[in-house]
Design brief:
The protein is an alpha/beta fold. The protein has 2 domains: about 5-160, Metallo-beta-lactamase, Chain A; about 230-290, Arc Repressor Mutant, subunit A, CATH 1.10.10.10. Helices cover about 40% and strands about 20% of the residues. The protein has 10 helices and 14 strands.
Length: about 290
């Protein structure tokens, strides 16, 4: 873990629970794409920087999930590097309490106020084309989270953040976190057509061919949607649907999974309702969902 893996002359990634991109800008200066899940990850990154006599100039966060920004504060304090994050995710990076509050739908219980959902705040600026290194391209990848972005470097390496999961993850967990299902599917369709020397997903192996994995993720989303529709053959409340999904997928409910999968289920229900496949009605002071 935290081994530096070289892809091209200037592009690397650090093997970690969520891969950290590292791009060499010249003989001494480097930047990161994300920073790992906590202060300890930041320390591991700092050791790699010191061992190679590299100077960290900036961290480009793909989005604000805690496992991607957890090392920000430590590395910024240590190196005075700049930090950039896209759109709404910049606000979440500056004010991390927003993430568990958003997932839970209110002030989060203490079981959600931990480093896996709430990183330390960092002084992030808004990601714009002007703040990117020369030759870089920012790639909008919405769906998994608000304004998630990936990056294409001059070496033609594409860092894809969390827009897809490995086959092993899909099989093990069945349902992963999605904020906007329609945007997520559109992103995957776009990714499926991309070409690059190498693709680096945060939660799958680096590859020179991303289309098969993108299609597998699309198929998984559509299967989950069909499962939800099948559960709605009769009117069902959100809590009933969530319980059935956990049972059918062999998941164990706790506060973290309740927040993550519950938030995702609501996103599926919105997408299916707006697509004309589900109806929603209030009966007996309950919101009930039913297949059309």
């Amino acid at each position: 873990m935290y081994e530096l893996m070289q892809l091209t002359q200037n592009c690397f990634y650090i093997q970690s629970p969520a891969k950290i991109g590292l791009v060499r800008l010249n003989d001494t200066d480097v930047c990161l794409i994300d920073s790992g899940n906590d202060k300890e990850a930041g320390r591991k990154v700092r050791q790699i920087l010191d061992a190679n006599k590299w100077h960290l100039t900036a961290i480009y966060n793909t989005h604000s999930n805690a496992d991607h920004i957890g090392g920000n504060r430590y590395l910024q304090n240590q190196t005075r590097c700049r930090i950039y994050a896209p759109g709404i995710d910049c606000a979440f990076t500056r004010h991390p309490l927003l993430e568990p509050a958003f997932l839970y739908g209110g002030f989060p219980v203490k079981e959600l106020r931990h480093k896996f959902l709430m990183a330390q705040p960092s002084d992030a600026g808004y990601l714009t084309d002007e703040c990117l290194p020369e030759g870089w391209q920012s790639i909008p990848l919405p769906g998994h989270f608000f304004d998630m972005a990936g990056f294409r470097t001059p070496d033609d390496v594409v860092y894809l953040a969390d827009c897809l999961s490995s086959l092993e993850t899909l099989e093990k967990y069945r349902i992963g976190y999605i904020f906007d299902v329609e945007a997520y599917l559109n992103t995957l369709e776009k990714v499926k057509t991309m070409e690059a020397v190498c693709f680096v997903p945060a939660h799958a192996e680096a590859t020179d061919s991303i289309a098969p994995l993108a299609q597998a993720n699309i198929d998984c989303v559509l299967r989950i949607a069909e499962d939800i529709l099948a559960l709605c053959a009769e009117p069902r409340s959100f809590e009933e649907l969530l319980q059935s999904l956990f049972t059918d997928y062999g998941l164990t409910m706790n506060f973290e999974q309740y927040a993550l999968i519950g938030n995702t289920l609501r996103s599926y229900l919105t997408w299916l309702k707006e697509g004309g496949k589900l109806s929603a009605a209030f009966e007996g002071n309950r919101l009930l969902w039913e297949r059309i």
